[in-house]
Structure formats: structure tokens, C-alpha cells
Design goal:
The chain is built from eleven helices and no strands. The protein is mainly alpha-helical. Helix 7 (139-151) packs antiparallel against helix 8 (156-163). 12% of the residues are buried.
């Protein structure tokens, strides 16, 4: 999404921000306000609100949320995996809506003092659990993967390699120590950038750097892409949509 926006800016077009650091969200509702914003907004305006939105009491609000997420699942493809994925997220958001209603009725007395980082970690875990069904080839396969994760049993990497062979390279799951270190360094670097971007205007900060420092960073990042980038026939999962 960022690369598409950058390419568009080079040609003189300014596209909307479509992903706003969704994995920094502290709740599932907040996640969906940050993830694929154009699509989420469309479903809100043309499905959720016409169904009645949140204007018809808690029961119908829960129904409207769940139906909206089921339809969003079907939008991704006519497969039970997407229906299950949409249903799980609908349950998450519906439960959060009911919990928010209870908080209002009790004047917020049932609130717990929980560090913000735990909310982020919990949201991330719930979202990743639902992603399993999104990526699985069948609902049964997704259920089996979840079962083995929860039971800490079975050859999970083997199961996923056999069922998702098109997604995993022939190299398999084994990483050398150097590759594992590089993965850790890159992920840590991206997390630092995302955290800084969440709290500061990165564009403004970059413009304050001397020109030689900015262009050095650009050339280094370009070199990293050339050296470590994956080029070939591997397609990004969203190409199927």
C-alpha cells in the first residue's frame, strides 16, 4: 500500500492512506478502523448503516455487525474459510460492542487497569487466530491448525507445508542462524519505524535531516531491497482478489 502511494506520488497523484499501522491497534474495532480503510468504510456505508447500524438496540447492532463481517468474508471469495474468518471477526467486534454497552450502563465501574501493551498483544493474537482460516485452503484444515496450536501438539509446520505448498518456498521452514538474525534485525527495525511513525510525522523528521544523510539512507535501503528482496513467481496473497 505504501509502495503504491509512493509510485502514485511520483506520477502526481495523491492516494488515501489505506492501512494506518493496524497492528498497533488496542482492540479489534480499532484494528478494523486501521486495516484496509477504503474497503472497511465501504462496508460501513453500504452494508452496516443500511442494516440499521447501531441505532436499533444492542441485539440488532450485534446482528448487523455479524452480518457485515460475514458479507465481507464472502467478498474475499466463495469459500467456507472466508465465511469462518468473517464470522470470527464478527464475534470479536460484536462482543466488544456488548462489552462497551455494559461499561456505559455501569458508568465504567467494571474497567480493569491493564497496560496498553497487553491490549495490543491481545488484539494481535485474536486477529492472527482468525487469519489462520483466511489462509487455510479448507475450514477443516484451519480448525486442525488451531487445534494443534492450542494443544501444543503435532507437526504444525509439516501440516502447513503440505496444505499450503504454493505459499511456502521449496526451502522449507528451516533457517540458518544468520538468516534468523537477519529476520530479527529487519523485524525489529520495522517495529521501531512503525512506533516512531505512530507518534511522529516521519516525513517532517526526514526533511530535517541533511541532504547527504537522507540520500545515504535512500541508497542503503534500495541496496537492502536488491540484496534481500524476493524476486520471481511468488505472488502476494491479495493478487487472488
Amino acid at each position: 500500500s505504501d509502495m503504491a502511494r509512493g509510485a502514485a506520488r511520483v506520477m502526481g497523484f495523491k492516494l488515501m492512506v489505506n492501512f494506518r499501522r493496524p497492528y498497533a491497534a488496542r482492540s479489534v474495532q480499532e484494528f478494523w478502523s486501521r486495516w484496509h480503510i477504503s474497503l472497511s468504510t465501504w462496508f460501513r456505508d453500504y452494508v452496516y448503516i443500511p442494516l440499521g447500524g447501531s441505532r436499533c438496540g444492542h441485539a440488532r447492532t450485534v446482528r448487523n455487525l455479524w452480518v457485515t463481517f460475514l458479507i465481507s468474508g464472502l467478498w474475499h471469495g466463495a469459500n467456507w474459510t472466508f465465511v469462518v474468518w468473517g464470522g470470527i471477526n464478527g464475534i470479536y467486534v460484536a462482543f466488544q460492542s456488548l462489552w462497551g454497552g455494559m461499561m456505559k450502563k455501569t458508568g465504567g465501574q467494571a474497567r480493569f487497569c491493564v497496560p496498553s501493551g497487553l491490549y495490543v498483544a491481545g488484539t494481535f493474537s485474536l486477529i492472527c487466530l482468525a487469519w489462520i482460516f483466511f489462509r487455510a485452503e479448507t475450514a477443516a484444515q484451519g480448525g486442525l491448525i488451531v487445534k494443534r496450536i492450542l494443544m501444543f501438539a503435532g507437526d504444525l509446520p509439516g501440516l502447513m507445508m503440505n496444505g499450503m505448498a504454493g505459499y511456502i518456498s521449496g526451502k522449507g521452514w528451516a533457517l540458518t542462524r544468520m538468516e534468523l538474525l537477519l529476520v530479527f534485525v529487519f523485524i525489529l527495525g520495522m517495529e521501531v519505524i512503525e512506533y516512531a511513525h505512530e507518534h511522529h510525522d516521519m516525513g517532517c523528521l526526514l526533511r530535517q535531516w541533511p541532504a547527504w544523510m537522507r540520500w545515504s539512507a535512500y541508497y542503503v535501503l534500495s541496496g537492502v531491497i536488491v540484496v534481500f528482496g524476493v524476486f520471481g513467481n511468488n505472488q502476494f496473497i491479495y493478487f487472488q482478489f
